[in-house]
Amino acid sequence: MSRPKEMIPVRTKILVVDDDERFRSRLTKALSARGYDACEAGDAESALAVAKVQHPGRAIVDLRMPGKSGLEVVSQLSQLDPEMQIVVLTGYGSIATAVEAVRRGAIEYLTKPVDTEQILAVFDRERESTGSVATTPPPEPTTPSLARVEWEHIQRILSDCGGNISEAARRLGIHRRSLQRKLGKLPPWE
Fold it and tell me: Whole-angstrom distance between the N-terminal and C-terminal Cα of the chain?
């Protein structure tokens, strides 16, 4: 007995761009197991080459990679296909980079660890909001905790200093070792 037509998932091409080979491979396999046509790339140059050949409708891009950053990849993929839905993943999220990612064309910014279902939920939510399906309004934004604001400020200063911890500590007015201890902690969650 065959399944009804509406139950069969539509094959959608998704490009996974991450320099972590293990993560990239697992995510690609998980997407393929769910009926998606997943392709992968380990850096910005190969991501663009794959996108030009495969024409994916969706992309999952890691923020920090050697060479060009994930933000640059988002810009280039958006220029290549303005309709492409792009989700940015990062292990060290901040409001500043999230805003920049969305400004460059990403639909969402997720902090690792993240699972396949969370990523697909973002794509489904985007499809519903651009389609004819009525969606519930997004929840009201909450005020971040003081620890979260401090952590994001440190990340922004460190980014402005090109990752130079000594220079970032000087700008923040704290000792380098104190900054290293703060950076060794995970970001505070709400």
Answer: 48
